[in-house]
Amino acid sequence: MATAQKLRILGIIGSLRAKSYNRQLMINAQQIISHMDNAEIEIFEDIGQLPFVNEDKELDYCQNDDNVKRFKQSIEQSDAVLFATPEYNFSIPGVLKNAIDIGTRPGPKNSFINKAIGVMSASPGNLGGIRAQGVLRQTFFAFGPSTGYPEYILPRAGQAFDEQGKLKDAQAEKLLKSYLQQLVNLALKHKNSSPTTIKSNK
Length: 202
Description:
This protein is of the alpha/beta class. It is built from six helices and five strands.
């Protein structure tokens, strides 16, 4: 009997810092997903290497820049995209917004179309990056019809991880597991009900 193909999730981290709380959160998510029978995750590590969006040059870099081609291909081959973003000045980092713009352009090929979307944020403050999540959600209008965006918020992230980068609090880990299962369930439902073709983003 053939084994069912696993759901493919692409992780995108909005921080370039090596020991970013959101990077640690994404790695914890990766470890949890690795124990799921029906899902797998790839983390795209190089959004900082993407060029700045420039309409005068985008046809060239979409055809010739290896990082751009790999990024857009990784999105297109995924069933779901999981973002982990810090909050900078009540918003998302510029590098993450640039990556989203690269992914949705040029107009004829929006790589984010027909993907289930998940959002996580970790912050040293008590709000856990919720304001950044609000800004990030506004960009999702470019991704096509909404399927709902499950969220995970980790406040006081400076005390949340041990020396190995693992979540210390059992309740936080339990909530993360529940959240990721919710995302997988949403993505499976979305995959089974959505067309597979990439539509125009005009």
